[in-house]
Write a structure and sequence with these properties.
Length: 68
């Protein structure tokens, strides 16, 4: 289904446009991907000793599973 939504794009008046019913899902996925890339780029420029963890701020870590 998601692949169908990804392919539901075309060009209209020289601009990319959603022609599908659920193009908001694709846009949300694209925005999330761009946000991740932006955060990765920011983190590349931070030295390890400049980073502050939640534990450093007194915020207890929340475990969401056995491995995390």
């Amino acid at each position: 289904m998601f692949q169908t939504e990804l392919s539901a794009y075309g060009y209209h008046n020289g601009r990319l446009a959603g022609v599908g019913e659920h193009d908001d899902t694709v846009i949300a996925a694209w925005l999330a991907e761009r946000a991740i890339a932006w955060v990765e780029e920011l983190l590349r420029h931070i030295d390890a000793e400049e980073m502050v963890t939640m534990e450093d701020l007194g915020i207890e870590r929340v475990r969401i599973g056995l491995d995390y």
